[in-house]
Design goal:
Radius of gyration: 17 Å
Order of helices and strands: EHEHEHEEEHH
Shape: globular
Distance between the termini: 8 Å
Number of domains: 1
Structural class: alpha/beta
Number of strands: 6
Strand content: 15-25%
CATH topology: Maf protein
CATH class: Alpha Beta
CATH architecture: Alpha-Beta Complex
Number of helices: 5
Length: about 190
């Protein structure tokens, strides 16, 4: 079965490709020659996932899934949340986003946060949502060089390392995205897809 992942982010595509069953051929946006800037104008992480999945299904006709993720920080009232990718403004810049978060948390004792991923799957005319959340804390400084986004400043609960210090395989087993993807895979298996 061909399934489009509404992303051109090679990090995300590779992360998910390794988790999917072999009978699912995962295509990215580049594979279907979609180079459009898909609108992400919703006020919630769920809303953006739905917008992206619907865009691909309606315009290209593929079974498709899209995800949206955000870092929600307790002391910042859930920010950056849906605005995580552009928290420091346009163009998207992971380093500037991290700098802004660290500056805003400089005098905060509560450094609790969570990463949240919502996947919207459009499959054979039906829509399904899967949510993965991992709790943790924001570090005082960057640590590690793996991963992307806020990975260098997020330590998941029960661990001593940031996502960026972990091996790819270890992060893949516990991450918010992995949790949401595993829910989707369980769904596929129950549906015998």
């Amino acid at each position: 079965m061909k399934l489009v992942f509404a992303s051109s982010n090679s990090h995300k595509i590779n992360e998910i490709k390794k988790l999917l069953p072999e009978n699912i051929e995962l295509l990215g946006l580049n594979d279907i020659e979609c180079f459009d800037e898909i609108p992400e104008t919703a006020e919630t992480i769920e809303g953006n996932a739905i917008l992206k999945a619907d865009y691909i299904t309606q315009k290209y006709g593929y079974n498709c899934f899209a995800d949206d993720s955000g870092l929600e920080i307790n002391a910042l009232g859930g920010k950056p949340g849906v605005y995580s990718a552009r928290y420091a403004g346009e163009p998207r810049d992971d380093n500037k986003n991290i700098n802004k978060v660290l500056a805003e948390l400089e005098n905060q004792s509560d450094r609790g946060a969570n990463f949240k991923t919502v996947i919207c799957l459009n499959l054979n005319g039906h829509q399904y949502l899967f949510t993965g959340i991992i709790d943790g804390n924001i570090t005082q400084e960057r640590k590690g060089s793996n991963g992307f986004g806020y990975d260098p400043i997020f330590v998941p609960d029960g661990y001593d390392e940031t996502f960026a210090q972990m091996a790819f395989e270890e992060k893949n087993q516990i991450s918010h995205r992995a949790k949401a993807v595993m829910q989707m895979i369980d769904f596929f298996e129950k549906k015998s897809i």
